Amino acid sequence: MSALASHTIPTEERRPAFSRLVTVELRKMVDTRSGFWLPIGVAAITLITVIISALVHHGHEATLAHLFRNSLMPGSFLLPILGILLVCGEWTQRTTLATFTLVPDRGRVLSAKMAASLVFSVGAFVVCLACSAVFAELVGNAPGGAGGIGIAVLGQGLLFLMTAMLIGVAFGAAILVSAPGIVLYLLLPTIWNALAGAIHSLESVGNWLALGNTWSDLPQGNLSGTQWAQVGTTLALWLVLPMAIGWYRFRTRDVN
């Protein structure tokens, strides 16, 4: 017994490093067929969007800032689906038993998925910026030249993609089933935006809680204090609340 005890490895030393968990989650994003083709599709649509934006009006509007704003839109809409698949895949791909056996602390697993989503969104941001810079120079014919982008706008664009990915992770964790998670992610904000625009009494509320009215303004330029407050309340509804629900469900749902 003393010999066995002397060779026992403490639990803290057996636990995988968080950086390794993030690396594993990044690989999980592209391991499945849908996970492999979805980022390729997002990149292709982003490139097409930039090209069309650069060519319209003979390139007279192809400033770097304009192309950059447009390049972010496909990713902000489609990348959350990748976040949903990343979380729900543990159950749909039946990897929960292996994952939670190797890492019993489910909070660390979900945190690693969130961190991997943020890393992936940084990569998507770099692709958007690179495509915008290349085509602004190659095709752009704006009267004042391609121009530049302020640090604040770049930071807001990065925040835009990061929060988009986290919204997907939050919906995935709250629903834990891929198809309903994707459907609710696509429908609920759209229905709310439509209601806020169609019903006069909801218009003022929509200015504080509708993704299309507040959060989507992030890449547009410098925001006022009121606009930042509107972004915060919108993210509280569409990111923080689903994430809180998802944190509980992810940690307590049965693995079968």
Overview of this protein structure:
With 256 residues, the protein is mainly α. The chain has one domain. It contains 11 helices and no strands. Helix 3 crosses helix 7. The chain starts with a helix and ends with a helix. The N terminus is likely disordered.
β-strand percent reads under 5%
* Oligomeric form: single chain
Shape: globular
Secondary-structure class? mainly alpha
What is the radius of gyration computed over CA atoms, rounded to a whole number of angstroms? Answer: 21 Å
Mean pLDDT: 86
Give the total of domains: 1
User: What is the H-and-E element order?
Assistant: HHHHHHHHHHH
Q: Counting H and I runs of at least 4 residues, what is the number of helices?
A: 11
Layout of helices and strands:
Elements: H1 2-6, H2 11-14, H3 18-31, H4 33-55, H5 64-92, H6 96-102, H7 106-138, H8 151-175, H9 178-198, H10 203-209, H11 225-252
Q: Which features would summarize this protein structure in a list?
A:
256 residues, mainly alpha, 0% strand, disordered N terminus
Task: Sum this structure up briefly.
The protein is mainly alpha-helical and 256 residues long. It has helices at residues 2-6, 11-14, 18-31, 33-55, 64-92, 96-102, 106-138, 151-175, 178-198, 203-209, 225-252.
